[in-house]
Amino acid sequence: MTNNNSKSNLVIALGVSLGGFLFGFDAAVISGVTGYIVPEFSLNDLQLGWVVASLTLASALAMLTVGPISDWAGRKSLLQVTGLLYAISAILSAIAPSYTLLVLARMVGGLAVGSALILAPMYIAETSAPRNRGRMVSIQQLNIVLGFSAAYFSNYYLLSLSQSSVDFALEMNLESEVWRWMLGVEALPAILFFIAMMFVPPSPRWLMLKNRPDQARKILEKIHPVEIAKVEFEKISNSMGAPERKLPLAELFAPSLRKVLFIGILIAVLQQITGVNAIYFYATSIFEQSGVGKDAAFAQAVWVGIINVVFTLVAMYVIDKFGRRPLLLIGVIGVAASMMLTSYGFHNATYSLSQETLSSIPELIVSDELVNMTQNTYSSDVEFKRDLRMNMGEELYTIHQAEIIKDSIKMNPILILVGILGFVASFALSLGPVMWVLLSELFPNWIRGLAISAVGFINSTISFLVQLAFPWELSNLGNSLSYLIYAIFAIIGFILLYKYLPETKGKSLEEIESELVG
Fold first, then answer.
1. Residue 499: helix, strand or coil by DSSP?
2. Which of 53, 163, 317, 320 has its CA 20 to 30 A from that of 429?
3. What is the distance between the alpha carbons of residues 483 and 345, in angstroms, rounded to a whole number?
4. What is the 8-class DSSP label of residue 478?
5. Do the Cβ atoms of 328 and 442 come closer than 8 Å?
């Protein structure tokens, strides 16, 4: 009976966390698309930032409201709606005829992302036992990184197909429309997620909020052994108080919640301000900046997905053994060191434009200014790219940027690869899975939906600003300074976590509430 219940709990967690897979896919797939949509729609840095970051802007808006709405309508019902939104977004993105419609399509996907990121860990935490809750909630993060990995593989595969002469690739018009296929394939797992949500039960804690204890007890007995189900039911009953309460936002700032709110906001801000979604959303472009070329950049992005999956599995294995606090502290130090290495690698780069590079662009009219550039060696990527843009024109520069940088740059690209992969490994071991585990644990049952929504909104807002600003940062601050800034934020975050972060390993949600809230 115990094994069957454990399997049932695991199957439910896997199904619900498919929403995380779709988020990961949605987030990473754009990294392979940016190089195509810039010339397609003649985008500047700010417009490119909007295409990438619009997903997260809509996600932030969804996070602000989905928690309270889920307290009214239920976690399961909203998860089903999320699946539909993912599918609609993928289809609209693939057929978008203009920049504006592409942004709107991405924002539809953002509504799904914000809902899934809040609802999935909340639901899994509310249906899991204390002894394995960290591992179960971490399944959400595993699915997110599997989504990242699947998107990088999908982009690389479609790019390879677009360069082949295979009959079905020609029929799909991949050579000229490959970026549309990259965006559109997400509709398939989205439909699968919608179907899967038909078979999961309502959250027992939500049923208790709705004063339906008999249904809650039956579901607990289906997903836990009888003894654990009985204990969980009693703990939930004792913590609920009134069956349902209408909570104004001001409740979050009650004196008893200040400590957990501060910790939640600290982790939510730190997760994004260290640059994770700049790395994930622009991975292919980052590797192109190191001079390896377009094909190699897509291939290296695949390694980002692989490392992400491996270290997320490590985190899932140790999170309930070593605890949340050690993983976060070790991971944040790794994030800081990796960003410093990446910054150092770009700091030592030099750029020299050659006549051979200019002659390889047949549509380019070589001006005196471009000839003068071949006589200089640039130590600043900002100055080199600025002069190229000015002398070549924005459109030609955008189309040929990867090839020009590959031919012009002198640096050690291995440093960049190691730095980025080190960042991904450190993040996947800590801030990735641990943040959502902690957010699902820190806040009391009666305010969890509202609290996670508010903190999730802050998390997504920071993410939006990071993604929006990243193309501008590279153009105006340069690669080296941009990554150094992320490293400094990680160091500040480590100091604050070391001072304030508690350990929640092995405690029931009600025990955590008693210790941190009272």
1. helix
2. 53
3. 10
4. -
5. no
What is the number of residues in the chain?
518
Report which secondary-structure segment, H or E, holds 227: helix 226-240
Q: Are the C-beta atoms of 391 and 369 separated by less than 8 Å?
A: yes
How does DSSP assign 250-304, residue by residue?
A: GGGGSGGGHHHHHHHHHHHHHHHHTTHHHHHHTHHHHHHHTT--HHHHHHHHHHH
Q: What is the pLDDT along the chain (518 residues), one digit of tens a residue?
A: 445 555 666 677 777 878 888 888 988 888 889 888 988 888 888 888 899 889 888 988 887 777 777 777 777 788 888 989 999 999 999 999 999 999 999 999 999 988 887 787 777 777 776 666 666 666 777 788 888 889 988 998 888 888 877 777 777 788 778 889 999 999 999 999 898 888 888 877 777 777 777 777 787 777 777 777 777 777 677 666 544 455 566 777 778 788 888 998 999 999 999 999 888 888 888 888 888 887 888 889 889 889 988 998 898 888 888 888 999 999 999 999 999 999 999 999 999 998 888 888 888 878 888 888 888 899 999 999 899 888 888 778 877 887 888 889 899 999 999 999 999 999 999 998 888 778 778 888 777 777 877 887 888 889 888 888 888 898 889 999 999 999 999 999 999 999 988 888 777 767 777 777 76
CB atoms < 10 A from the CB of 343, how many? 23
Which two structure tokens, joined as six digits, stand for 83? Answer: 């699946």
Return the amino acid letter for 81.
V
Distance in angstroms between the alpha carbons of the first and the last residue of the chain:
36
Cα–Cα distance measured from residue 311 to residue 145, given in angstroms and rounded to the nearest whole number = 10
The amino acid sitting at 326 is P
CA distance 30 to 52: 7
Whole-number Å distance between alpha carbons of 358 and 355: 5
Distance CA 44, CA 52 (A): 13
Please check whether residue 462 is in contact with residue 257, taking contact to mean a CB–CB distance below 8 angstroms. no
| Sign of the four-CA dihedral 216, 222, 224, 228 | positive
Give the number of other CB atoms < 10 A from CB of residue 204: 26
Residue 351's H or E segment, with its range, is: strand 350-351
| R_g (Cα) of the chain, nearest Å | 24
List, in sequence order, every residue forming a beta bridge with 375; answer none if it has no partner: none
**In the CATH hierarchy, which fold is given to the domain comprising 2-200+260-329+422-474+494-505?**
Growth Hormone; Chain: A; (1.20.1250)
Hey, what amino acid is at 279?
I
C-alpha span between 285 and 466 (Å, rounded):
15
Helix (H) or strand (E) holding 410, with range, is strand 409-410
> Is the CB of residue 370 less than 8 Å from the CB of residue 391?
yes
Task: Locate all alpha helices (DSSP H) within 98-212, ordered by sequence.
Answer: 99-127, 133-162, 167-171, 174-184, 187-196, 204-209
